[in-house]
Specification:
This protein is an all-alpha fold. Helices cover about 80% and strands about 0% of the residues.
């Protein structure tokens, strides 16, 4: 059950990134405001209470980055960023895009053909009864 919940949260982090970031910012601002209220209740002036709260919690951007790292979606997000960048580059240079697709198609086709031959000749058993008893003279 935990695995499904983690997967659901990661998908939510990937697909609803803006909402998750907004929720994180709201939660951090809530904690800062709570700490400011505690500091004000202890008798600090407003400016000093805010600075003390920020000091106590640490840097807000660092906390946000730690939360993003804890979601473990940065690797997937970087792959999406790389794919988007590659598509932008290929869109700007259609001749390079056509050459890239052609080379990939030739490589995949050649690899498939070689594997088909190797599979038929080397990997599949011979079409005889008890092929291990066949002897070569």
């Amino acid at each position: 059950m935990r695995t499904l919940q983690r997967l659901r949260l990661r998908l939510r982090s990937l697909l609803g990134r803006a909402r998750v970031e907004r929720e994180l910012a709201d939660e951090l601002s809530f904690h800062i405001e709570q700490q400011i209220a505690e500091n004000r209740a202890a008798g600090m002036p407003a400016v000093e209470a805010r600075l003390a709260a920020l000091r106590l919690l640490g840097g807000v951007p660092q906390i946000q980055e730690e939360c993003r790292d804890m979601r473990m979606t940065t690797a997937i997000e970087s792959v999406f960023h790389d794919i988007r960048y590659a598509l932008r580059v290929l869109r700007k240079n259609p001749a390079f895009a056509a050459a890239s697709v052609l080379v990939l198609a030739l490589g995949i086709g050649a690899n498939t053909a070689i594997f088909s031959v190797a599979n038929a000749v080397l990997l599949r058993p011979l079409p005889f009864h008890a092929p291990e008893r066949i002897v070569r003279l």
